[in-house]
Write a structure and sequence with these properties.
The protein is of the alpha+beta class. The protein is built from 6 helices and 8 strands, in the order βββββαααβββααα.
């Protein structure tokens, strides 16, 4: 049975050329999650879609289709576009890329959609980017069922102690551990102090901010697989 969806709030996550003049677009929608659809003729110079199908532009889209790939029927502008520049633009592209990689088609994620909107608005301002991204990543993992418990040791259920060290296992949690010479540089061992800082989103300390970024990379990497994220190379090229 063919589905018809009218004026669905959405953002463009990614698009690639399709056939001669069209685009294959991954949308993040309010009620249907990730939706892949063909925007016919969108690459033509006079296309009414061309200026609208851009990342970070709030849209209202209509689409139809029986299979996994839908056909765009209409696109309207929503509220004003989010304008990102420099590293904040790269951060937005990073958020879009991990959503493309981790979301399944046609699975509703309304709270994640709100988290995404809030993240884009925050990136447009002057708030700490590390905090914005870590908050989004923690929310994304929780929404997908892989929440990180930053409150306690998963074995003993004792609260995380700032003076102790913990070994992290993705999708399992933290286990109290002793530091030996062999494990002094183990990338899966974290200070309790840094875990508490992440839990409280207090990342003014550079060491804590670095640890938080590394921890979230481990947690997301368990689901992203070995294929590198293209958006990360943008940050590297600027340094």
């Amino acid at each position: 049975m063919e589905s018809r969806v009218q004026l669905q709030p959405a953002y463009v996550l990614h698009s690639i050329p399709f056939q001669n003049t069209s685009l294959l677009v991954d949308f993040f929608t309010l009620d249907y999650g990730r939706v892949r659809a063909v925007a016919k003729g969108a690459r033509r110079e006079k296309s009414k879609y061309r200026s609208l199908l851009q990342a970070f532009h709030p849209l209202l889209i209509s689409f139809t289709g029986r299979g996994e790939v839908k056909t765009v029927g209409a696109v309207e502008a929503g509220h004003g576009a989010i304008l990102l520049q420099g590293e904040r633009l790269f951060s937005g592209l990073y958020v879009n890329e991990i959503l493309c990689r981790l979301l399944h088609n046609h699975e509703e994620h309304k709270s994640l959609y709100k988290n995404y909107q809030d993240t884009l608005v925050a990136l447009q301002g002057d708030s700490n980017m590390e905090i914005i991204l870590r908050k989004f990543e923690l929310g994304l993992l929780a929404e997908l069922g892989y929440a990180i418990n930053l409150d306690e040791d998963y074995l003993s259920h004792q609260p995380i102690d700032q003076d102790c060290y913990y070994r992290f296992t993705p999708d399992v949690g933290f286990e109290l551990t002793e530091i030996s010479e062999d494990e002094g540089n183990n990338p899966r061992i974290f200070r309790g102090y840094d875990l508490i800082a992440l839990r409280e989103l207090n990342l003014a300390d550079k060491t804590a901010a670095t640890a938080a970024k590394h921890l979230l990379r481990l947690a997301l990497g368990a689901h992203l697989g070995d294929k590198p994220l293209n958006s990360r190379s943008l940050f590297t090229s600027q340094r």
